[in-house]
Each structure stands twice: as C-alpha cells, then as structure tokens.
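User: ok so my PI wants both of these folded by tonight, can you help

Assistant: No problem, let's get them done. Here's the first:
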Amino acid sequence: MQKVLVIGDSCNDVFVYGKSIRLSPDAPVPVFNPVETIENGGMGLNVQANVMSFGVECDILDQVERIKKTRYVDRKTNHTFLRVDTGEDNILRVKSNQLEQIKNYSAIIISDYNKGFLHEEDIKYVCDNHPLVFLDTKKHIGDFCKNATFIKINEVEYNVSFAELNKDHYKNNLIVTLGGSGCKFKEKIYPVDSVQVKDMSGAGDTFIASLVVDYLKTLDIQKAIKFANLCATAVVQKRGVAIVNNSDIIYR
C-alpha cells in the first residue's frame, strides 16, 4: 500500500465571514460584523488532507506550535478585509532523529513555508536519503535541494530563486505554476481551463498533493501534472482553504 509523509509547516486557517454595510464614524474604515467562523488545517495540514481525500494514506511531521491565520471575509463577495497571523515567533526546528522515519514511506512531500521548522540542512537530508521527494519551498532554490525528485514553485518564486543560479541543473525536475495559465515543465506549458475564481487560498497545496497522488499511480509526471492542474482548477472555485477529490474533477 502506498503511504505518503508530509514534512513542513502547518497552521490553523480561520475564516471569519461577515458583512459590512457602513463606515466607522470615528475612522474611514468599514465596520465588520461577523456572521460565521470556519476553521480548518492549513499549509502542511492542507496538503495532508488533500492527499487523504483521494484515499491515499498520509502522515504528517510538522511543528507542535501551530501558526494561526485569521481572515476576515465579506460573505457575499468573498473579499478579504484583513488577515491576522499569529504564532510565527514560536516555531521550533524539526529534530534530526524525526527525519529518520522517511524510509518508511513511498513518497515524501516537503511543504516548506519557510517559517523555521525546516532548515536547508533538513531539506537536504530528506532529498539525499529518499528516492521520491516532492519539494514545495518558499526558500531560494540552492544546492541543498538539488537531489529533490521534483520541485514545485510559482512563477514569482522562480524569477527570484533562479536569478543567480544555473537553471539547467533543474530543467528536468522543476515545475513552475503559472496561476490561470497553468504550469510549465521542461519548457512545455500545461494549460488550464478559464474558470471563475472564488479563492486562491491553498491552491498550491492542492496542486502538490494531487501531483503526488497521481504520480504514485501512473509514474508519469506529465499525466500527474495534468491531473494536478484539474485539481487546482477545481479548488479555486471553492471558498476558503478546501480539498478536492475525484468527484470534483472533470476529466478530459
């Protein structure tokens, strides 16, 4: 049976939905009236939830101290008024002996939001000691991750990370997501359908999770990219940080 391990930063995503129908009399700001609060696991926990939604067993190695992201959102338009993050000052680094468990898993997903849980040396250890590692990192790409099987970053991160690096070294394992334009792998563009986007929160988590799920099934990265595109397209049409499964996907 295939089993996946997610390693990385996690958070609690809190969405406070409400309405605003007037401005404050003492300052030129909207008065926000909360109506409903929805809370779920985000970042690494969202990756794990998306993997499990496809019936694949998945564990997580993350920090004990959870970051909390609270978004205040207009219920009607889904417009975010404000996001408040707490807990980032208390992140402890992963213990080296905890990483030894990677040998027990079919694939490793590193979900590194660069909050302090994983250092470059930790990522290097995982990439050097497991044959199938999918890396999603906010760190600048460097030699510490050159042995990752596949690296997924967005276009902005790509332009920053590779400003002073030899891009040729990563040409066979780098997947660059392009938002509404799909993604790029080995200079080939994998497009996505144009859809009405409700929320981009967590879309990258869904992409990397579904990429791994399909790759474990097909061992074909091009097929896995197409599947991940379908899943990411489906999840951005949902509110908040959401998950997808096979029932959400329109296959072509």
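One down. Here's the second:
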Amino acid sequence: MLNWELAQFDSAVDDVFGFRAVQIGLPEVDFLRQNRIRYRFTLALEPGAALAADPLQLPLASQSVDLVALPHVLEGHHNPHDVLREVERVLMPEGQVVISGFNTTSLWRVRQAFTFRRNGAPWDAKFIGLLRLREWLRVLGFELNGGKFGCYAPPFTQKVWLERFAFMDKAGARWWPITGGVYVVRAVKRVPGMRIVTPAWRQERARRRALAPVSQRSHKNHHD
C-alpha cells in the first residue's frame, strides 16, 4: 500500500512549482521526494517532524505555501474539516494540496467494521469517503484536478494470501475502479478573479516534455 501511495504522490507533486512545500503528518515517510520546490519541510506532532505543530493550528502565515501533502491526516484527526480549512488558509492562490485516504466503499472498510479499534492504524481511523471529501473541498474553494484509486486486494496480513489475491489489484482499476482500498487526489485552490486553467498532472508533464527550448537574444538600444 505504501509503495502504491508513494508512486501516486510522486506523480502528483512532480510538476508543482513554487517556493515552499509542506508535508503534514507521517514525517518518517517522504511524500514530497519527487517535488522540486527547494524549501520543503514536515509538520506534525509526531517525533521526527521539522516543525512540531497541530494541523488544526498551523504556525504558518496565510497564503505562504505553494504545495501541501496530507497523507492520511484527515481521517486521524478529530476535526478534519477544520484541518482542511487551515490548509486553505496557508495555501497561495492556485496552490495545490495532495490528499490520501482510506476508501469507505472498499474491502478495507468491511475489514474495519469487524476489527477492534484498539488494533491500531488504520482500523482506529475514521475513514472519509471521497464524495464527502470532494464536497468539503468544494465548499472551501478547491477544485479536484487529479486522482486515483488503488489497493483492491483484501487487506490480508499474511503474504501467502496477498499473493493469491494479487490479481485483484491488476483487475480492479478496470472492473471495479471506485472500490480501491485507498485513494490519492490532488486539488487546486481557486480564487475568484485569479482562475488559471491547468491540465491534469500527467498531461502537463507530457506537454512540458514535448516543448523544445527556444533561445532568445536580447538587444540593447544605444543612444548617441
């Protein structure tokens, strides 16, 4: 699951540019590793974060960040909507947020229903459905511009059973695309009067690679 999520984050953050990027939560894993913004840092209450803070009260100036990564932060917080509100506050206009979460329409949710919360993550988290998340984002002025479901096999703990059901991961995207155990989505902060139309991240990357660099000469005017 972690390998799949990292691949989606790699793809989602690769073409986001700016001056500052922050990963909130899970500081032990670098979800911004493929981003090229120079100033990147982690923020969390867990040990290992560059900045210790509650996601509900980000010690960051308003409109000061270009990219925010939220790997499974919302479902583990008691007030996920207000966490998103804080993210909206610190993001620059047209800034991007990448969010991962556990899908409520999946075998993972079925497993959670029959698992004691004391068994720890992810079963003690409050799964947030994608439709609900999309509505929260819409209310805050965000617009989805990319995303994917993954991890279709049942969440077995034994390797032998994971191998037997590996075919579900291969067929899931084609036959039951919205039932993946995990989703990763990207959204852009829209501000009235500053709307910039940009394609999905994969299309944008392909467009940039197709463009050849054009050299320009500068001419100086000399006056007698």
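The radius of gyration is 20 Å. The longest strand covers residues 91-102. Good luck tonight!
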